Amino acid sequence: MTAHVRFRVNGESHEVDVPEQRLLIDTIRYEVGLTGTKLGCGVGVCGACTVLLDGKMVSTCIMLTAHAEGADILTIEGLAKDGELAPIQKGFLKYGGFQCGICTPGQILAAHALLEYNPHPTEDEIKDWMMGNLCRCTGYYKIIESIEKTAAGEV
Fold first, then answer.
1. How far apart, in whole angstroms, are the C-alpha atoms of residue 49 and residue 111?
2. pLDDT at 41
3. HSE of 134 in the Cβ direction (CA atoms, 13 Å)?
4. Over the stretch 119-144, which tens digit does the pLDDT of each residue have?
5. I need a surface site. Which of 31, 76, 99, 136 has the fewest CB within 10 A?
6. pTM greater than the 0.85 cutoff
7. How far apart are the C-alpha atoms of 9 and 15, rounded to whole Å?
8. Domain 2-78: which CATH class?
9. Contact between 121 and 145 (Cβ < 8 Å)
10. Rounded CA gap, 143 and 139, in Å?
């Protein structure tokens, strides 16, 4: 059986007919054609597949596309506006909050959501918020610094 699903991705409307069990990450990557969202673990624990769905972080590797009916989805590709990177993207670039890049889209979207929720988080608040996004390369120091500097307006 198939599901007919309507949603917006980065402000653009989409309608898809997908198998009922199609995961949202596969729909974003293959039907919508945006490959910034990465598949890391496939069980919803690493954060590489994070997008913002109606402003909330979700793991697209465990969410069915059918559950995104009517949703507004923001992917890493949607953060930049008119060719200008979002402040958190600039912060990650300026302060080295990335290395291999697999976790980076999810890290940036989680950090963006944090700064929307709390524009001036403490280091402990950053650590708590970001604990659902795993990184094997950075040791988190540069990720935390990137978020702190962005929050301080140093980008």
1. 14
2. 93
3. 10
4. 999 999 999 999 999 988 888 999 99
5. 136
6. yes
7. 11
8. alpha beta
9. no
10. 8
